Inverse folding.
């Protein structure tokens, strides 16, 4: 793991197109601003792990396990 020190308003570059900027520091909390291309997903680790877990669980569901009268959720389309 690379460990870098930065102060408020300083930026770290990842590759040519991802910028991570220290926006604020208050006590033991650091606020980061992240600029990344739209095709790069950016999540807090706990959210990323929850998404992976939900996707893995959804992949285990067999079509025959879904009730015939169940309607698809089109709100996320």
């Amino acid at each position: 793991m690379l460990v870098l020190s930065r102060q408020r308003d300083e930026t770290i570059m990842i590759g040519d197109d991802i910028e991570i900027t220290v926006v604020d520091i208050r006590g033991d909390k650091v606020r980061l601003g992240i600029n990344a291309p739209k095709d790069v997903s950016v999540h807090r680790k706990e959210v990323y792990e929850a998404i992976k877990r939900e996707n893995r669980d959804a992949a285990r569901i067999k079509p025959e396990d879904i009730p015939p009268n169940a309607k698809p959720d089109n709100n996320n389309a």
User: Anything to note?
Assistant: Strands lie at 11-14, 18-26, 29-35. Residues 45-59 form the longest helix (15 residues). The chain has a mean pLDDT of 90.
